[in-house]
Structure to design on (215 residues):
């Protein structure tokens, strides 16, 4: 029995991304480039008939989803929003320019916070912490629809998507830390008998070379 598709899309470029700032749970808008990236994702996904969409509580993911749904003519699609899909919380780093943060805390320390699996920044989450809220939501709220034959679209964030990929691909912490999630670059997962059978990562034309900067 073929199951449905699960499609993951990271939001487009935000105002803070463009300013090289730590974003986390800060609720910032997409910029012009981010809107265009979302439209490109919509063009890529226009041939998939989605049954339901999930997104985070953050407006950049929600707006990306709405742009995609408008592009594919599915503005009436049911949407479930949940904090479980939010980006990793960067705590005290939120809003700081990454260069300024390196000067304040030391470049080595900032690198550890950004690139380790289980060491959180002050007041924030590690990738491990993020995975511990994302993966149960994936397993309890999202995958049952997929296994029931539904095509599901998830518009979320770099690290919440990393957590999902880690679970579905059974990646180690080392593997997931090396996994880049491009802005508005759809990851399309196919399943059969609840087993992952195929993953297609569909590239979109890059507007700027910076389209893979971390969130």
């Amino acid at each position: 029995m073929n199951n449905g598709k699960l499609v993951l899309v990271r939001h487009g470029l935000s105002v803070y991304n463009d300013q090289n700032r730590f974003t986390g749970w800060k609720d910032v808008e997409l910029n012009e480039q981010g809107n265009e990236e979302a439209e490109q994702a919509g063009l890529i996904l226009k041939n998939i008939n989605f049954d339901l969409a999930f997104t985070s509580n953050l407006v950049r993911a929600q707006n990306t989803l709405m742009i995609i749904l408008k592009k594919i003519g599915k503005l009436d699609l049911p949407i479930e929003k949940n904090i479980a899909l939010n980006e990793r919380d960067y705590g005290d780093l939120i809003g700081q320019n990454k260069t300024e943060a390196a000067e304040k805390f030391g470049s080595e320390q900032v690198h550890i916070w950004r690139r380790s699996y289980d060491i959180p920044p002050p007041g924030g989450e590690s990738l491990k912490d993020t995975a511990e809220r994302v993966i149960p939501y994936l397993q309890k709220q999202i995958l049952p629809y997929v296994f029931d034959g539904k095509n599901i679209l998830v518009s979320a964030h770099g690290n919440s998507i990393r957590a999902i990929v880690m679970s579905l691909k059974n990646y180690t912490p080392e593997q997931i830390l090396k996994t880049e999630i491009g802005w508005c670059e759809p990851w399309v997962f196919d399943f059969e008998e609840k087993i992952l059978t195929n993953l297609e990562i569909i590239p979109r034309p890059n507007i700027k070379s910076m389209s893979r900067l971390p969130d």
